[in-house]
Amino acid sequence: MIGQLKGRLDSTHDGGCIFDVNGVGYLLSCSRKTLDALAGRDGAQRLLVETRVSQDAITLYGFADASEREAFRALIEVKTVGPQKALIVLSSLTPDGLARAIAGKERKRLSEVKGLGAATANRIVDEPAMQKWAVGRATPDADGEGALSIAPLEQGAEADAVSALVNLGWKQPQAAAAISRVAKRLGDGATLDALIRDGLKEMAR
Known about the structure:
Layout: E1 4-13, E2 16-21, E3 24-30, H1 32-39, E4 45-53, E5 58-63, H2 66-75, H3 83-92, H4 95-103, H5 107-111, H6 118-126, H7 128-137, H8 156-167, H9 172-186, H10 192-204
Parallel strand pairs: 3-5
Antiparallel strand pairs: 1-2, 1-4, 2-3, 4-5
Helix pairs in contact: 2-3, 4-7, 8-9, 8-10, 9-10
């Protein structure tokens, strides 16, 4: 399974892009916000990837950061919300904006997302798992309409360490906070192994 890709944007199309990794072009489905973030930065970039395998296809979904991928994973667990509808939501709302809308039960705001509809918006708001996810993320000072950013390669070790902790079962916000503290303590020369090792110690406290 592919968890992330490091490369360059080759081209974009409606609903996705081709991401060039050492001459191999990966076809990725992405939100509009991730595509805008990719197009706004030159050079090598990192994309987190969710691989979904169905009976007749293997589809790769690309994300600007771990919070968007986490929101995607939460959304597709809601009945009738598949990957494409999840990307429609994330094209209109950032993860923080979505969390605030769900936590505040702003049904109208979600129903106004083009292509979603009132019935699906209600399911998202009423889903207990989504409420639990949203309450953990919703913050009063978060900019729900802000743009996503793509992490440059020089920040890859810290981002990869966060991804490793998330893959081990920790929540992304807690993992990110722990790795941030560790990175400050270890300094600029910290290796990925050191970040993960000390990050695990930090999480165990």
